[in-house]
Design the sequence.
């Protein structure tokens, strides 16, 4: 069963989800990678205004390829999430609710997900063209000088992902290791 969610996310949305749940997002998702996260982090540390509202927001760790004519975005596969680990706890503390990427997260991020009621979603690599089909519009909202790493506002419909880390302490990566270690 797939769970339909609309952004921004609320604490009640977050609490309902468990690892392994398949989610289809609709609404607004922001993109951001290392360089953008570093800039947001620096603004948060200085208590300055961010170019996006993190409250209830979902950030997709992606640097999309250029769009072909007639499409809003090119292939948009996830990037490795651990590179955003130094920034994620502070962003979760300021209202970020969801992060989408690939690969597992560090202990500090997992603790912050539990503490601030967040979620980490994965979407498999290799489906970049399929993911792009769920993007209905794209707008650069910050750091255009970063090129593909600029922060973009994506309007999405049925954007597919899977809950990898939930606010209850569930960890899909750890559960997978346990499952196959018993086999």
Sequence:
């Amino acid at each position: 069963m797939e769970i339909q969610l609309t952004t921004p996310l609320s604490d009640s949305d977050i609490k309902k989800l468990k690892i392994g749940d398949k989610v289809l997002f609709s609404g607004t998702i922001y993109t951001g990678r290392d360089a953008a996260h570093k800039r947001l982090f620096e603004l948060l540390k200085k208590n300055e205004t961010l170019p996006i509202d993190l409250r209830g927001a979902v950030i997709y760790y992606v640097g999309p390829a250029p769009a072909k004519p007639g499409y809003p975005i090119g292939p948009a596969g996830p990037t490795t999430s651990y590179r955003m680990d130094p920034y994620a706890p502070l962003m979760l503390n300021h209202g970020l609710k969801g992060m989408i990427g690939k690969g597992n997260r560090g202990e500090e991020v997992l603790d912050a997900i539990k503490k601030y009621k967040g979620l980490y979603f994965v979407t498999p690599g290799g489906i970049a063209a399929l993911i792009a089909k769920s993007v209905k519009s794209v707008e650069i909202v910050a750091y255009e000088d970063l090129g593909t790493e600029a922060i973009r506002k994506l309007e999405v419909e049925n954007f597919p992902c899977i809950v990898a880390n939930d606010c209850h302490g569930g960890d899909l990566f750890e559960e997978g290791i346990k499952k196959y270690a018993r086999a």
Observations:
- The radius of gyration is 16 Å.
